[in-house]
Write a structure and sequence with these properties.
This protein is α+β, with helices and mostly antiparallel strands. It has one domain (3-184). It has helices at 104-120, 135-138, 181-184, and strands spanning 8-10, 17-22, 28-30, 38-42, 46-50, 59-64, 83-87, 124-126, 142-144, 156-159, 163-166. The strands form four sheets. Strands 3-2-4-5-8 form a five-stranded mixed beta sheet, with helices on one face. It has a two-stranded antiparallel sheet with strand order 1-9. A hairpin with a 3-residue loop joins strand 10 and strand 11.
Length: 186
């Protein structure tokens, strides 16, 4: 199974304030330190935070080395695309759309953007996604809901275009997990 198709929970950035969490009942409650599908609040402006569900059926991880997304990639990448993609289960194509809009994280993300906009007349949205270097993963603010496993970066990815690539910055996996309500009770 593509890891991006699992239901994920997040935590907002530590710099966020006036934060509300979307409950499983669809209510917005003042952030109580629990993980959730979506949050709204303020950071650099009105924000909605949610897991960024992938657009393509088979893309598990993506990586744009050094974030140079405007440059041409290696010669083996079509049209000079600088992005590297790791696919799931031995697939060899992106796979196209897969119903991400009905996925619980996609639904929660839209609810968060809508609620943020209703409260502030505008909304900015972002959240962790399966991209090497993603700040939400680096800060350990993304986990798989069913297992509670915090998502970390792989040591390498198998790019569909150019094969196995080592991820240079292994220290990205060494951040402390995001605090939880249980951790604060001790």
């Amino acid at each position: 199974m593509n890891p991006t198709h699992q239901v994920h929970e997040i935590r907002p950035p530590e710099t966020a304030h006036e934060v509300y969490r979307l409950t499983d009942d669809g209510l917005w409650v003042l952030d109580d330190g629990e993980w959730g599908l979506a949050f709204i609040g303020n950071d650099t402006g009105p924000m909605a935070w949610y897991f960024g569900v992938g657009y393509q059926r088979n893309i598990a991880w993506s990586w744009c080395k050094n974030n140079q997304w405007r440059t041409h990639g290696p010669g083996c990448h079509p049209n000079g695309n600088p992005w590297h993609y790791e696919l799931t289960n031995g697939e060899n194509e992106w796979g196209g759309s897969w119903g991400r809009d009905e996925h619980p994280n996609g639904v929660a993300g839209r609810k968060a953007v809508n609620e943020c906009c209703n409260r502030n007349s505008c909304a900015n949205g972002r959240g962790p996604r399966y991209e090497i270097g993603d700040s939400g993963i680096a800060e350990r603010r993304l986990r798989v809901r069913d297992t509670g496993e915090v998502v970390t970066f792989p040591v390498s990815i198998n790019c569909m275009y150019c094969g196995e690539l080592e991820i240079e910055d292994a220290r990205l996996n060494q951040a402390e997990p995001a605090p939880t309500a249980e951790a604060d009770d001790g």
